[in-house]
Amino acid sequence: MKRTLIALAALTLAAGANAGEVYTGIGTHGVMLGFAQALSPQFTARGDFGTLGSRQKNEREEGIDYEAKATYNRVGLFGDWFPFAGGGFRFTGGVTFNNMKVDLVAKGNGTPVTIGNNSYPTDSTDRFNVKIEFPKTTPYIGLGYGHQLSTGWGFVFDLGASIGKAKVTESHSGNNFSQIPQSDIDAELAEIRDGAGKIKAIPMIAIGFNYRF
Predict the structure, then answer these.
(1) Phi, psi dihedrals of residue 83, rounded to the nearest 5°
(2) Of 3, 19, 99, 136, which one's alpha carbon is 20 to 30 angstroms from that of 75?
């Protein structure tokens, strides 16, 4: 985060008298707040923070009941290129710094559960934890409208994606779960990876408004 703010401040100083901009909006990455600095009529540098916070709910994955906690926070640094003189349409490239993960926790309650290909008894000591985590740093590509060199109020829109593949890891403990063969653990994770592994990009759609000064 500190490096992100330093880089954005350096861009602001380098831009000199060109218009600066604050913007906000909402989208698939939650509520966002950012600052943009026009470097020329064709190029703008900007950075923003978006968050959905953390949410908890119960989920059932591959026959196991989990307590799920999802966290989504993102800081982005972007460069916008406006190919048409005087227009707001742009192409965007950049990098996002992510805290995007899902923590799944299964707790033993005396009810048998199926892990891999076999059923196992449980008690209150048993825990089976699965973490699905998106990479901490990912490239971003997209297109959109807004953030061009101008003044006053404006409209902004983004459509793009952060490119990266989710990683699935696990840990387990307890009187019964600690005795589960690794083959069944691997089979359970393989089923979860079949779903999470298909996610190779996190899409972003956002709409908002800005003020340029």
Answers:
(1) -75, -20
(2) 19
Average pLDDT over residues 136-165: 94
User: Domains of the chain: which residue ranges?
Assistant: 2-212
**Helix (H), strand (E), coil (C) string for 116-174:** CCEEECCCCCCEEEEEEECCCEEEEEEEEECCCCCCEEEEEEEEEEEECCCEEEEEEEC
Better pLDDT: 55 or 197: 55
Query: What is the token pair recorded at 193?
Result: 């990876």
| pTM of the predicted protein model | 0.79
Tokens at 166, concatenated = 């989710």
What would the pLDDT profile of 170-201 be if each residue is shown by its tens digit? Answer: 888 999 888 889 888 888 888 778 777 677 88
Domain 2-212 coded CATH 2.40.160.170: yes
In the numeric block, the tokens 């990683």 are attached to: 167
d(CA 44, CA 67): 43
Dihedral (Cα; 44, 154, 1, 72), 10-degree rounding: -120
Residue among 142, 138, 177 nearest 158 (CA): 142
pLDDT at 12: 47
